[in-house]
Amino acid sequence: MTTVDAFSTDPADAVPHTPAAAAAGRLNGTPPRTPGADLPEHPDALWKNPEPKKAYDVVIVGGGGHGLATAHYLVKNHGITNVAVLEKGWLAGGNMARNTTLIRSNYLWDESAAIYEHSLKLWEGLEEDLGYPILFSQRGVLNLAHTLQDVRDSVRRVEANVLNGVDAEWIEPDEVRKICPIVNTSSDIRYPVLGATYQPRAGIAKHDYVGWGFARRIDEAGVDIIQNCEVTGFVRDGNRVTGVRTTRGDIACGTVALAAAGSTSVLTDMLGLRVPIQSHPLQALVSELLEPVHPTIVMSNAVHVYVSQAHKGELVMGAGVDAYNGYGQRGAFHIIERQMAAAVELFPVFARAHLLRTWGGIVDTTPDASPIVGRTPYDNVFLNCGWGTGGFKATPGLGWVFADTIANDEPHPYAAPFSLDRFVTGRLVDEHGAAAVAH
Amino acid sequence: MQMIKCPWCGPREEVEYHYGGQAHVAYPAEPAALSDEEWAHYLFFRDNTRGLFAERWVHTAGCRRWFNAVRDTVTYRFHATYRPDEPRPVTA
Ligand SMILES: Cc1cc2nc3c(=O)[nH]c(=O)nc-3n(C[C@H](O)[C@H](O)[C@H](O)COP(=O)(O)OP(=O)(O)OC[C@H]3O[C@@H](n4cnc5c(N)ncnc54)[C@H](O)[C@@H]3O)c2cc1C
Ligand SMILES: [Zn+2]
Question: Is A274 on the interface with B (CB under 8 A)?
Fold first, then answer.
């Protein structure tokens, strides 16, 4: 599928979005165009809404990106199609609908680089694989350094990335300015930009289209996507779970795969299984639609904000979690206020932009800022959680690796380091540093 | 912004406080006797309750003292705050 060519992200091709520009367009004969008019049309229906069957070989709990991608690779790589994806709300309406879509693989440790880079490679072919436009735009990411310690950590991370075959370089402030002219690189600010790491292959994608693309593919292959179906309990027989209790009746299962992100603990509590997860609100926001001004993604750990510009023209911004545990899918406004202060510090040009909308999701954080993927003490229950603030980028990679783990009843090599028992052995994969404003 | 009632100072704005996670997690009575599994649970595993949760807060920009709160993790509403030496109050 090549429809994405129609949505060039080159600022030179872009249609101006301000009323004044639209008026100017009218004056010189170009018809005014609505923001988003260049986005593709969707078919009327992308998947069916079947009644749940009595039993499935694999029941996936959670119809976010991870659950859908796992079903896709169960079908595609392992020929397993007697699969249900159970979703308590509407399809891909959790964090999948709320994230800021940053995709990158420049993580510090070998274990992380392996799984995130695997995912990034899959992103590069995903539109073709799904036969659906996902607007994957590899516009690069700059992770800014503002202190000497930042510089040292960043250079170390770049060296580690290069050894792992991840495209990464250290660049000086004048190069930062060339890649993103609107970043304030003057020395006359509280936290001057001392340089940045740059990953050119990083990018953004349209999260809804990604979810819908996976859903359409698995629906075609015979997977049942069952919405408004909340798992409320498990039927246990010794070390096995033989079925799930849901708001739409009991469903028997050969294997259960948990992919419930921020709600994981609610499910594992029902299984009497403790997981080292804390659920937090994570907020994001968009500005009104603006002309293309921001060609890349900029993240700053120290000043604490990250920004990209969506295809329609909104500036998309976020930062870290709200400090307290929360399941409310919203957060406090003072968190937003701080992000805005940081954004205006780094990008003085944003000072007059209006905030259009803020929202929140529930993210599942772990003690080492790395996910938990693999086995549980139950023979036929597999766990995927703990992606916290950064699991959108892992969607295809995790789906591939989790499907493989389920199909072979054996952790995929990329999943193995992320087992639940690392918290007992002490082999943590500490990505707090490279998690880079945590996305 | 939420007002949080410090048991010593009274109601103050949320930004004056920092969060400290689950309350009433006691230091192991016999640390040397713990298995690796038990240490892991003491260090890394905390309840992640959906609903009323007893948790620690510190009044950083005020008296700088720690205290406990019972808060609903869905509505974020505080149901009670109390001193660390007091038992968890019964809340509705
Ligand atoms: C504001 C924000 C910004 C983010 N930005 C980024 C970013 O820039 N880059 C990045 O890589 N990641 C980002 N993330 C993180 C990313 O969104 C998540 O890590 C990822 O979406 C988690 O996987 P998922 O898509 O499967 O989760 P979800 O979409 O949350 O899917 C889990 C699903 O499980 C369902 N569920 C829960 N309990 C039950 C039950 N009992 N029965 C049935 N169904 C159930 C939920 O309704 C939900 O739909 C961000 C998250 C947020 C909130
Ligand atoms: Zn006080």
Answer: yes
For the residues B19-28, what does the mean pLDDT come to? 97
Please give the distance, rounded to the nearest whole angstrom, from the Cα atom of residue B76 to the centre of ligand 2.
20
Residue B88 lies in a domain: no
Determine, yes or no, domain membership for B49: yes
B77 touches chain A (CB under 8 A): no
B48 and A323: CB-CB below 8 Å?
no
Q: Ligand 1, closest atom to CA A204?
A: 8
Supply the range of the domain harboring residue A249.
Answer: 55-132+206-276+367-435
A181 and A272, same structural domain?
no
Q: Which residue of B has its CA nearest to A425?
A: B36
Q: Longest C-alpha distance within chain B, in Å?
A: 45
Q: Which of B14, B43, B50 sits opposite A327 (nearest CB)?
A: B50
Query: The pTM is what?
Result: 0.93
Q: Domain check: are A285 and A228 in the same one? A: no
- Whole-angstrom distance, CA of residue A331 vs CA of residue B26: 30
pLDDT in tens, A161-188: 999 999 999 999 999 999 999 999 998 8
Domain count, chain B: 1
> Does residue A95 lie in a domain region?
yes
Taking CA atoms, A270 is separated from A148, B31, B75, B76, in Å, by 47, 29, 22, 23
